[in-house]
Structures are given as C-alpha cells and as structure tokens.
Task: inverse folding
C-alpha cells in the first residue's frame, strides 16, 4: 500500500485541507498543535471508520462547522499496482456514518461496515494490526530499551497481537547504557602485530584440524554407504516377504469368503424349497374355491344398485318435506308483501311535503337574518346619536362651568352676551334633533323585533312539523327495504318450489325395496371374508414362478461355489511363506537402521565441527579484514564512525508455535537492517524468546546495556521496523509499502537526530514511503519531501 492523496473537510481542526504525499522519505513538519498527528488519524478513519482512540463522535467534527455540515475524509492509495479511493462521511446531528470504496475509479462497495470489511479483506489487517504495524511513536521506540523486562514484554506482545495467546505475561525489561563514541575507541579495537600473528597461527591450526576431520568424515562415509547398501538389500527381501504374506492372507480371506457364501446359499436353498412346497399347497386350495370370485362381483354390483335406489328414495322424501315448508313460506311472503305495500302508500306524499317544508324554512331563515341585520343597523344609529348627545351635554356642562366669559365651542370667540343663546341652542339640538331621532329609531327597532320574534316562532313550529314528517318518512323507508327483502324472498321460494317439483317428477321412476336390499347385503357380508382369502391366495401365488427360478439359480450357485472353494484351497497351498525368516529379516533391518542413524549422527557431528572451524576461521579472517578496513578509515572518516552492537530481542516463553517463529524472524529482519545501517560493524541482533535484546560484536553477544545511546536508538529503530515487517507477514499483508513514525526524535540532541535521519536514509529503499512526524523545523532539509503545517 502506498498513500497518494488525502482530502479533509470539517475533520477535527481542518475545515478544508488536502495533501499529496509523494514517495521516499517524507517529513510532516509543524509546531505542536498544528495537526500533524491528525493527518494519520484521518488515514485510520478513512480506512476503518474510527479514530485512533474510540470516543465521542462529536469530537471529530470541526468546532466551527454546523450540524448540517458533513465530516468528509477522502483517501487515495495504491495497492498491488491498482488505484483505490475510500470516502468516509459523518452526516447530520447524529453523525450517521456513510462510506464508498472505488477500485480504478469504479464504485465497488457502499456502506460504512461493508467498506471496512473490504479494506480488511484487501490489506488483511484490522485497525489495531494496521496501527501497530505501520505506525510507531517515540514512546514505543524508547520503551524497547528503557522499560523493565515484564513491561517491555507486555508492550511487544501488544504490538504483535500476541497478548491473548497465553496467560503468562511478563513485563518487558529494557536497559540502555551509553557507550563511548569517541574516535579513540577505534584505536582501542585495532589489533596489534602480536594479535595479528596469533590470529594467523589460529587460522593455520584450524585448517589442519579441519583437514584431519575431513579425512575421518570420508572414511566414515564409506562405511555408511556400505551399510546403506546392505540395508537396501534387506529392505527388498522384506518387501518380498511382505508381498508373499499379503498374498497368502488374501487367498485365505477369499477361501473363507467362498465357504461362507456356499453355506449361505445352502441355507437359502432349503428355505426356497420349503416355500415352493407351501405355494403348491396354496394353489390346490385356490382351485377348490371355483366361481366364488364371479359370485362376489355380481353381489357387489347388486348392492351398489340398491344403495343408489336408497339414495334416490331418501332424496325424494326430503324434497317432499321441503315442498310443504315452501308452500307455507309462499303464503306468508305473499301476505307480508301486501301489508308492507299498504304501509308504504304515503311515501311520495311525505317526500313532497318535506321538500316544501325545507324551502319554507329556508325562506323564513333568510327573513330572520334580514330583520337581524336591520336590528343591528338601528342599534348602531341609536348609539351614534347617543354619542352626539353625550358630546353636546359635555360642552354645555363645560360652558356652565366657565361662565359667560367662555369661548364659543365653534369659533372660539368669547360668548359674553351670546352665552345664554349658545347654551339654549345646544340644549335644543339635544332635545329636538338627536333625542327625537333616538325616539324614532326605538319605534322602528320595536317593530323589527316584533316581526323577528313572530318569524322565529313560525320557524320553530315548521321545524317541529318537519321533524314529525321526517320520522314518518324514515319509518316508511325502513318498510320499503323490508318490502324489497320480502319480494326477493318470495321470488326465491317460488323458483325453489318449481325446481323441486321437476326433481320429484324425475324421481317417480325409481322404486326402492328395503327388504330386498337387506337380503343382498347379508349375502354379500357372508361371502366377503372368503373373497378376501381368495385374493390373498392369488397375491401370494404371483411369486410362485419367481421362487422356482430363485431355487434353480441357488442350486447352480452352490455348484459354482463348490468348485471355487476347491480351486482357492489348492492355490493357497501353493504359496510358501516363512514367518521365522521374515522376523529375522525385520530384526536385521532394524539393527541396520540404528547403525545408519548412529553413523550419520557421528558424520553430522564431524560436519558441525568442520562448520564450527569454518566459522572460527571466517570470524578470525573477518576480524583481520575489519582491522585492515578500520586502519584505512581511522584517518579519513573519524567523524563518520560509530560503534554499534547488535541487539538481541527475546520473548518470554510462549505456549504456541507462533511464538517460536516471531523472535527469529524479528532477529533476521533487524540484523539485516542493523548491519546495513552500521555499515557492517554489527552483523547480528538476537531476540530471545523472553524478548531480551543482544548485539553480536566480533562473534560474541552482549546485552543492549553495553552499548552507547546512539547505537541503542538505532537498534530500537530497526527492531521496531522488524516488528512491523513480522506483523505484516503474520497478517498476510505483503503489499504494505510505507511506515510512519511520530516524534521519534523526542528530546535527542542534534548529533543523535542526524544519526537517526541517516539511518532512515540507509533503509529507505526497503519502503516506497517513510513518514516522519516532527516539530523540529531545523531538520526539514534532510527530507526528500516536506509537508509543512
């Protein structure tokens, strides 16, 4: 898997953000809180629909986004040369999950759970496995060497997903010690002339010993070949013995089978003979029964005819009784129809009257409403006039209060001598104008109210008349429905009577004699058991021919099997097998195998000694070659040389086979990378089954604490990468092509940071993408590509 591009919308601190990752060593650089780690949280969210740690979904939505704004993450990546795109969304107030998955631009999967399943099936990794495999933090790297043994073991088991394999969890212990990296360390490890001469003598001595062992090995190998030849010969003899024994056993089994088959056929012959004799006796018995079958069939036909006549007789009686009942119903229905027709005679008159009443009530209601409108208008007029009276009286009272010096209410000039005239004029207006109008309006209002009351009383009387008429009409309508039902019933009764009459006419031709029926039934009942016995005999005698044929075949088979037994017995006696010789051959073969095993073990031991000597020679030669290399580099590359020792990681004793595979694989991957990073100085890192780490230095292993802090940092780095690779292999996800490290520099000084960066440059060809998240702005020029936040 290679990450290509990610686009974020309203995800945590990002409102709108997009990155194209590129390949190589990629630096994600930014100050604390700038959202560096959020990018990789978004990658996890896109792939698995969850953030790094599960929690409140609301925390995923950007604080400035509204509930209507969706949270969207779009991730594009390459997997096994194919282009993929996954789109995750949280929508609405409830943040309901939606997802889509594309392959080479074509939509293949929709739905949050379905897309997660497709991702897991594609990468062969769950969310936890993906995090532990491809993401590492400074805390994890430091923990590899600083935690106590049980704590370290627990952490590595969690990374590998092995914490549930058994119940024995010990804390991982890591110790680190700083080793001197001064240039004088090179001088201390350089060999002196005496040491070089001694090592050369050791090589010659080992080569002589190797030659002696080689000659001894050749001699023992010749002896072994001779024994193997004899073993092969004996093995062939054993194959002949086994084949002969098998053949004799097979012939014995075939002979026993033939004898058993013969015995079975003889028993079958006796049984079939007895059955033939019994069937012959039953044939004689059947012949004696004569014409019983035809007599039974004749009686059966007569009995059927009698039962049919009885059925017609019973039907005729039923129809006659029904006709009597139908006549009564006919008479009653006719009477009911006449009564109901008389009761419904006034229907049309009542319908006409009620329509006239409806029209009359409608007219009276219109008149009442008109009178009511006039009443309201008169009351409004009276209220208007009364208001004018109240206003004029108010003016008169005010003038009287102010006296003759008051102003004219119309022209505002002082009244003086006009004072009395004005007051009298206002009083006259009140009495002769407004009050007169009110009196007239009251007369009109009384007349209108009287007419309205008369109309309402008339309307009430008409409504009562309408109610009584409606009741009578409803009663007639109910009787009309009864009349319709009675008429339909009358027609049904009439039709049914005519139909029964025709049926009775047809049944007149059939006569039924109950006594004769009883006689035939008695004769049939008496004859039936004999007839059933006859049928039983016929059924059994159908097998007669087949049983005779079986008896003939069995007799013939007995003759064939008798001949077969004789032939097999003669063939069995011809096969010669010596059990004693077979056992002797087996004992000799077993002895030869033990001898071969012991000889082989001795030869292998000689080979191990030879290999050990080769290893010692190679180590001494490597030491001499390394010494030559160091002599050349001491003067020119003092600042570039560092001492590294290999770290060996050991897991605590696990109870499954998987545990035994993990540690060696981590050791292998870590050793290869550490050797490359240290430029061959340290060739092997060992990880024990207890997750203790050892570094091999000149063929000897040392605990990690022996080495310098820089070497421990690099060892931690390759071990963490080795764990990631092992996780990838265990999960079957072989196409993951990137790693991500979060703040792996921690509080390292500048020199230490440069060493770690150089290490990443050394191993980058093993991964198409390596992401380093850091807040150290000054190291950004060390990356091939930088995403600065």
Result:
């Amino acid at each position: 898997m290679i990450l290509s591009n990610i686009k974020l919308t309203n995800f945590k601190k990002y409102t709108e953000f997009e990155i194209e990752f590129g390949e190589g060593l990629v630096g994600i650089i930014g100050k604390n809180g700038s959202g560096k780690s959020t990018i990789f949280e978004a990658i996890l969210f896109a792939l698995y629909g969850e953030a790094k740690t599960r929690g409140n979904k609301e925390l995923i939505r950007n604080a400035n986004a509204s509930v209507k704004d969706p949270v969207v993450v779009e991730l594009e990546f390459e997997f096994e040369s194919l282009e993929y795109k996954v789109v995750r969304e949280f929508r609405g107030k409830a943040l309901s999950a939606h997802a889509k998955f594309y392959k080479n631009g074509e939509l293949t999967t929709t739905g949050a759970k379905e897309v997660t399943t497709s991702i897991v099936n594609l990468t062969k990794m769950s969310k936890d496995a993906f995090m532990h495999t491809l993401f590492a933090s400074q805390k994890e790297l430091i923990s590899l060497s600083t935690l106590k043994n049980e704590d370290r073991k627990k952490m590595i088991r969690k990374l590998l997903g092995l914490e549930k394999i058994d119940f024995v969890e010990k804390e991982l212990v890591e110790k680190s010690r700083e080793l001197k990296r001064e240039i004088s360390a090179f001088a201390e490890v350089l060999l002196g002339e005496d040491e070089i001469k001694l090592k050369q003598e050791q090589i010659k001595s080992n080569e002589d010993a190797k030659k002696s062992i080689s000659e001894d090995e050749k001699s023992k190998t010749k002896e072994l070949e001779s024994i193997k030849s004899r073993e092969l010969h004996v093995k062939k003899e054993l194959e002949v013995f086994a084949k002969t024994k098998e053949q004799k056993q097979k012939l014995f089994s075939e002979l026993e089978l033939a004898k058993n088959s013969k015995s079975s056929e003889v028993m079958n012959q006796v049984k079939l003979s007895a059955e033939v004799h019994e069937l012959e006796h039953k044939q004689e018995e059947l012949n004696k029964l004569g014409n019983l079958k035809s007599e039974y069939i004749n009686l059966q036909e007569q009995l059927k005819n009698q039962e049919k006549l009885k059925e017609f007789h019973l039907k005729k009686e039923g129809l006659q009784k029904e006709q009597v009942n139908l006549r009564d119903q006919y008479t009653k229905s006719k009477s009911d129809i006449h009564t109901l027709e008389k009761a419904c005679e006034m229907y049309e008159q009542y319908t006409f009257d009620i329509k006239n009443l409806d029209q009359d009530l409608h007219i009276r209601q219109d008149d009442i409403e008109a009178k009511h409108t006039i009443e309201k208008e008169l009351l409004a007029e009276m209220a208007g006039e009364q208001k004018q009276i109240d206003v004029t009286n108010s003016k008169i009272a005010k003038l009287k209060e102010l006296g003759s010096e008051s102003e004219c209410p119309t022209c505002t000039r002082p009244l003086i001598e006009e004072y009395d005239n004005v007051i009298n004029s206002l009083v006259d207006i009140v009495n002769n104008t407004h009050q007169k109008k009110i009196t007239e309006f009251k007369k009109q209002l009384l007349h209108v109210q009287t007419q309205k009351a008369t109309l309402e009383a008339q309307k009430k009387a008409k409504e009562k008349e309408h109610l009584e008429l409606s009741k009578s009409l409803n009663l007639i309508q109910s009787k009309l429905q009864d009349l319709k039902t009675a008429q339909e019933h009358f027609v049904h009764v009439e039709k049914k009577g005519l139909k029964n009459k025709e049926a009775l006419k047809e049944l007149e031709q059939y006569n039924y004699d109950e006594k004769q029926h009883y006689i035939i039934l008695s004769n049939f009942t008496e004859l039936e058991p004999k007839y059933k016995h006859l049928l039983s005999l016929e059924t059994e005698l159908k097998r007669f021919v087949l049983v005779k044929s079986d008896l003939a075949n069995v007799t013939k088979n007995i003759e064939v099997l008798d001949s077969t037994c004789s032939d097999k017995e003669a063939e069995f006696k011809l096969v010669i097998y010596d059990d004693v010789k077979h056992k002797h051959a087996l004992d000799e073969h077993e002895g030869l195998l033990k001898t071969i095993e012991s000889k082989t073990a001795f030869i292998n031991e000689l080979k191990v000694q030879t290999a050990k000597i080769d290893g010692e020679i190679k180590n001494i030669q490597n030491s001499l070659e390394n010494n030559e290399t160091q002599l050349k580099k001491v003067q020119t590359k003092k600042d570039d040389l560092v001492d590294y020792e290999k770290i060996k990681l050991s897991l605590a004793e696990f109870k499954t086979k998987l545990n035994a595979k993990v540690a060696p694989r981590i050791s292998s991957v870590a050793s290869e990378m550490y050797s490359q990073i240290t430029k061959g100085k340290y060739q092997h890192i060992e990880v024990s089954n207890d997750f203790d780490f050892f570094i091999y230095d000149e063929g000897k292993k040392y605990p990690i604490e022996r080495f310098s802090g820089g070497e421990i940092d690099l060892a931690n780095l390759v071990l963490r990468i080795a764990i990631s690779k092992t996780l990838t292999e265990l999960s079957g996800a072989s196409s993951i092509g990137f790693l991500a490290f979060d703040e792996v520099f921690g509080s390292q000084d500048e020199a230490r940071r440069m060493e770690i960066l150089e290490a990443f440059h050394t191993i980058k060809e093993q991964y198409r993408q390596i992401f380093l998240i850091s807040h150290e702005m000054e190291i950004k020029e060390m990356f091939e590509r930088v995403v600065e936040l």
